From TrEMBL:
Classification via PANTHER family: SPHINGOSINE KINASE, SPHINGOSINE KINASE RELATED PROTEIN
Family, similarity comment: Belongs to the diacylglycerol/lipid kinase family.
Pfam families: DAGK_cat (PF00781), YegS_C (PF19279)
Keyword Cell inner membrane: no
Protein name (record): Transcription regulator
Domain (DAGKc) ranges: 1-138
Keyword Lipid biosynthesis among record annotations: yes
Source organism of this protein record: Ligilactobacillus apodemi DSM 16634 = JCM 16172
NCBIfam families: YegS/Rv2252/BmrU family lipid kinase
Record's keyword terms, sorted: ATP-binding, Kinase, Lipid biosynthesis, Lipid metabolism, Nucleotide-binding, Phospholipid biosynthesis, Phospholipid metabolism, Transferase
GO biological process, one term: phospholipid biosynthetic process
GO molecular-function terms, A-Z: ATP binding; kinase activity
Cofactor: Mg(2+)
Length: 327
């Protein structure tokens, strides 16, 4: 059994993660699992912990560890990028999903129940590999990795509004308190549509170029699931070693409504104004300031000359270790 280096975000799921961590810790102690745990309290804390633990550790010693994240997609993303930056090897990742969306967990079949997910972690005996997305943005000299998706435009604008929903409008605050986050997201996506202007996109895949003059949504996905369990890219697969790109062009109000209905029934790829591509390497150029989001975390408004690719990463999970009926 490997030793677990555990990162806990106790603030995830509006603070419920702290109580969930107590339950997880009790199971670990009862089974005499070797672990050390660290609780985060701000963005960047995960990287600090991983830097202190792994930056000077030899590859041979690092092979004895698994990084276990108890948190949401944002903490998992930070852990992945920190390991890639700080560790001498690709230390396997494990995950107990206690965030709001948990898109990656849905994408690979990891249980939404924390203790069941823990069982899928503890029954693993070797790493399993899943696809992750990688990007290199040349305008700002930025690079990194994502597990869910990289969005530009409407979905990113809505993500920004969603992240700040608790600061605005009494109705949104009421819906959040009532745990109706999906309705909050619908309000935000509609607000974003009313305020998001169309923008030009240049797409290159291989030697072929395509041009879009009035794009509203640009989303590069590693698996089907978007925010609140919405399936935005139904053809995406974490095991096909490719990324799925969706571009919504010439999206007027009625087309937007039709797209929303089509997404509900997972029929959006049949719409003529929703362009779908699947490839291992994708290059996008956007010469206007547009909102961006990575794994549901807003990254601000910027220009893009960005290259996307797909690679594999080891995860310490045994998805089949728990019957489907119990997940």
């Amino acid at each position: 059994m490997r030793s677990f280096f555990i990162i806990v975000n106790p603030l995830a799921r509006h603070g419920q993660a702290a109580k969930i961590w107590e339950q997880v810790q009790n199971v670990l102690d009862s089974r005499n699992v070797d672990y050390e745990a660290h609780l985060t309290d701000h963005v960047g804390h995960t990287q600090q912990f991983i830097h202190l633990k792994f930056s000077k550790m030899s590859p041979e010693k690092a092979k004895n560890y698994v990084v276990l994240v108890v948190g949401g997609d944002g903490t998992l993303n930070e852990a992945l990028n920190s390991i890639k930056k700080e560790a001498a090897i690709e230390v396997p990742l494990a995950f107990i999903p206690v965030g709001q969306n948990n898109g990656f967990a849905k994408g690979i079949g990891l249980s939404a129940d924390p203790l069941t997910a823990l069982e899928q972690v503890l029954t693993a005996t070797e790493p399993v590999y899943y696809d992750i997305g990688e990007y290199q943005e040349t305008t700002h000299n930025e690079q990194g990795y994502f597990l869910n998706d990289f969005g530009i435009g409407l979905d990113a604008y809505a993500t920004s509004l969603n992240a700040n929903a608790h600061k605005h409008v009494r109705l949104k605050k009421f819906l959040l308190r009532a745990r109706l986050r999906f309705l909050v997201y619908l309000i935000n996506i509609f607000t974003a549509f009313l305020n998001q202007e169309a923008f030009a996109v240049t797409l290159r895949i291989g030697d072929k170029y395509e041009f879009f003059k009035h794009a509203r949504i640009v989303n590069v996905a590693n698996h089907p699931y978007f925010e609140n369990g919405i399936v935005l890219s139904p053809a995406a697969d974490v095991n096909d070693h490719q990324l799925d790109l969706i571009i919504a062009d010439n999206l007027g109000f009625f087309k937007f409504l039709l797209l929303s209905i089509a997404i509900y029934f997972k029929k959006q790829l049949k719409l003529p104004y929703l362009h779908h591509y699947k490839d291992k390497n994708i290059h996008l150029i956007i010469n206007s300031l547009e909102y961006g989001q990575i794994d549901g975390e807003e990254v601000g408004s910027k220009y893009y000359d960005i290259f996307f690719g797909s690679s594999k990463y080891p995860f310490w999970l045994n998805i089949q270790g728990v019957p489907v009926a119990k997940r």
